[in-house]
């Protein structure tokens, strides 16, 4: 029994250590990006609600910096851009239930990342006790609250309005402040741009200290 509890402590410590050193997000990419496209001049397109939003403008500046690292160039006055780029973001609340410490839930926080959902872990097996209600009455559950932070970046042709790329990024964190996640979300979104059309992948970035 002691060795089993020791293994659990080591396992949980490993998970916490990993979470503390990296930022993990899930990135989905859909695009019709021309393979020979050279024109990367752009203008940032804001919605009316974003126009006078100081928070949005802060994130927009972070987006500009990341776009510059990938060869995009923001236009100067009097120049017609090749692209227009828009950005939306948001946070939703989710809850998960974790079993008692001696039976930890093996929970993957990145499963079905682009959907609002909760996850309930149940150690019930139909081969034991005969009733699912037996387990629920006798287990002490603790609740941890996660926040799902989402970012979407759209890139369209300026002249025709045709959408060329749609990038969705999301991450689940215990911290509800999206402002602390946005630099990582934007960097994750543009990593390997344009990427494989229709692909969804996990991206890990080292946390900045």
From TrEMBL:
The keyword Lipid metabolism does not apply. Residues 28-195 form the DUF4136 domain. It comes from the Bacteria. Residues 1-20 form the signal peptide. Keywords: Signal. The keyword Membrane does not apply. This is DUF4136 domain-containing protein.
């Amino acid at each position: 029994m002691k060795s089993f509890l020791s293994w659990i402590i080591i396992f949980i410590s490993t998970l916490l250590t990993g979470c503390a050193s990296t930022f993990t997000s899930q990135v989905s990419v859909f695009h019709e990006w021309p393979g020979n496209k050279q024109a990367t001049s752009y203008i940032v397109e804001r919605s009316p609600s974003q126009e006078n939003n100081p928070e949005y403008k802060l994130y927009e500046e972070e987006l500009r910096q990341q776009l510059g690292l990938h060869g995009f160039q923001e236009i100067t006055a009097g120049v017609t851009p090749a692209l227009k780029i828009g950005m939306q973001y948001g946070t939703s609340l989710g809850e998960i239930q974790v079993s008692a410490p001696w039976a930890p839930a093996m929970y993957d926080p990145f499963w079905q990342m682009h959907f609002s959902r909760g996850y309930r872990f149940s150690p019930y097996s139909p081969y034991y006790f005969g009733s699912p209600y037996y387990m629920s009455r006798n287990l002490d559950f603790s609740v941890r609250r996660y926040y799902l932070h989402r970012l979407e970046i759209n890139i369209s042709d300026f002249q025709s309005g045709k959408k060329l790329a749609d990038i969705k990024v999301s991450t689940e964190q215990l911290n509800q402040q999206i402002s602390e996640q946005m630099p990582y979300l934007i960097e994750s979104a543009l990593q390997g741009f344009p990427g494989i059309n229709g692909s969804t992948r996990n991206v890990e970035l080292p946390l900045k200290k």
